[in-house]
Amino acid sequence: MSLPDGKTRLVFCDVGQGDGVLLSRGTFQMLYDVGRDNGKMRKCLERYLPFWDRKIEVVILSHWDNDHVGGLEDIGKGYKMEKVFSGVKAEGEFEQKVYAEILRQNDVLRSDWFEFEVVWPERSSGVEQVEMDSNEGSLVGVLRVADKRILLMGDASVEVEQKLVWRKILRGKVEVLKVGHHGSNTSTSEELLEEVRPKVGVIGVGRNSFGHPTKEVLGRLEKYGVEVKRTDKDGDVVMIMAKE
Questions:
Q1: Which residues contact 48 (CB under 8 A, 6 or more apart)?
Q2: How confident is the model at residue 132 (pLDDT cuts 50, 70, 90)?
Q3: Could you tell me if 155 and 135 are in contact, meaning their C-beta atoms sit under 8 angstroms apart?
């Protein structure tokens, strides 16, 4: 594969038990989460980026759990990350290492060919750091590429999903759902599936002791006719969103 090749790719990288998503077109790359500290996200980048392109223009971190941000240091050894965003300030070991600009509901990142709209967390009254469980504070966004909508859920809980549905924030169907919290039963409610009616649901998951993805979530996805892709079984899940 000779890169760049004029295609817009959305890649749900096989990073083991964790999430790492790459949006790539030409020499522009955006990441949504970067997996855990196991080298797998960097290897995914090497598969889909030109070998001479050592810059990641945008990195969005849903929250600061290790299985979503642990790969930052490894990626930073080989790539320059120009802009880093999250819904909450860096926590733990990353607090002194990473400056992330805070995004909140209704913030939008856009170019002439894609748009990423933040739908969660809510805006608070002048306070940057919301006191909330790290999963509840996951940055949830709707990515629009060409005429397609992709809902990226981080580890957001059923309670967050219900707020997004009840307050009519999601506004209609999506083509692809990044299934929340690796298929945990704490996410992917019937209310959410009824609202967004995804054609494809992608689960970022690896060997784990949590029972992810749960039978309940797989059953709900089947009930709504969602085609399920799993990184533990399918490897990298690659979608061609557009061609020049």
A1: 3, 9, 11, 22, 24, 238
A2: low
A3: yes
